Amino acid sequence: MLCTKPKVWRRVLVPQTITLLKLHRVIQAAFGWGHSNLNEFIAGDGERYGAADPMYDSPGSINSENVRLTTVLRTTTLSYVYDFGDSWEHDIVVEKVLAADRFSIAGQDLRTGQGTIMSAADGVV
What we know:
Elements: H1 20-31, E1 39-42, E2 48-50, H2 69-72, E3 77-82, E4 88-93, E5 104-105, E6 108-109
Antiparallel strand pairs: 1-2, 1-3, 3-4, 5-6
């Protein structure tokens, strides 16, 4: 979270193919928030992705529901804004991309939550 002292941050492990909507939910859970405010992601090129709002969005606006992290992550950072009234701004930073077979912690599959280890088809951020 930007502009706070001390700095507030979380580290999460997600698949590169996660949708921005699901990433939003991961961030909400990591901070203990209740998804009660609007949000958007801003790519390095300034393109904005958020929840569809038929009252305000123009037809063809980009909805975060079906857009994947790999689609918008053109650099190692992505901005996330939560609660447009308070404007809680965050920088999402890719620290490391793991090999495709490194997706379990203590035998738990990070994609399914199951205890069975399976082979990964995509990398994990």
